[in-house]
Every structure is written in C-alpha cells, then in structure tokens.
Prior knowledge:
Largest sheet: none
InterPro entries: Essential_protein_Yae1_N, Yae1-like
Order of helices and strands: HHHH
Shape: rod-shaped
Keywords: Cytoplasm, Nucleus
Number of strands: 0
Family: Belongs to the YAE1 family.
Organism: [Candida] subhashii
Radius of gyration: 46 Å
Region (Disordered): 12-50
Amino acid sequence: xxxxxxxxxxxxxxxxxxxxxxxxxxxxxxxxxxxxxxxxxxxxxxxxxxxxxxxxxxxxxxxxxxxxxxxxxxxxxxxxxxxxxxxxxxxxxxxxxxxxxxxxxxxxxxxxxxxxxxxxxxxxxxxxxxxxxxxxxxxxxxxxxxxxxxx
Length: 151
C-alpha cells in the first residue's frame, strides 16, 4: 500500500530539508583558540619581563644607594676620626690629671661633664653637618677643665 498523502503518517506541512551551511560560530574555529593562547602567553611573557625589569631596577637602585652611603660614610669617617681622636686625647689628659691631683668627687664630676655624648654635642660645633670643627676653636667644657688643672 502506498501513501496517498492524506494519511496520518505524514504531517500536514513538510519541513525543508536541512542542508549544511557555511556559517560557523567562533567556537567552531579550530585555530581561534591558538590566537587566545598566543595572546595569553604574550601577556604572561610581558608580565614576567616586567617583573624581571622591576626586580633589576630595584636591585640596581639599592646597590647604588648602598654604595653611595658606604662611600659617604667612609669619607665622613676618614675626616672626623682624627678630630674625634684629638678630642678624646684631650679628655683623657684632663681626666688623668684631675684623678691624680684632686678628690674622687671632683674626678667623677669631670668624668660626667666630659662624657663623650656631652663633648660631641652639636651645640659645640659649626652648624654645617659636614664638618666637625669646634666653633671659635674652643670647646667650653674642655677649656673649663684645662683651666682648672692648670691653676
């Protein structure tokens, strides 16, 4: 038996046959992922390069600062050490003389007044921080004690 078209086995409308189309979505593109992958790799490489450059820059900056400080400290030490040593020698002579000619109380007083922190107080030196020169070429505390031991 053949179908005459008015039977229930076929629908009233006939769908058009499905044919393949040339329209593809981006997700169908096999090579599209490679572009994203390459861009991601380039971004990671760029970030890694930036991190390395930042690290080298920071390290170079720190090395430069450290080197400059070391050089500056050494120059300051070379300049100030002999002057500080001369002050220390003066203090030592004063204290030894006071100890030998006077009482322990007077020695303790001299020792307190000639303490290194007091001797090197900023108020006794020129105002430029680069120079350890005594203002007016006299240190008032040392002058006082030198006058005391010479009388």
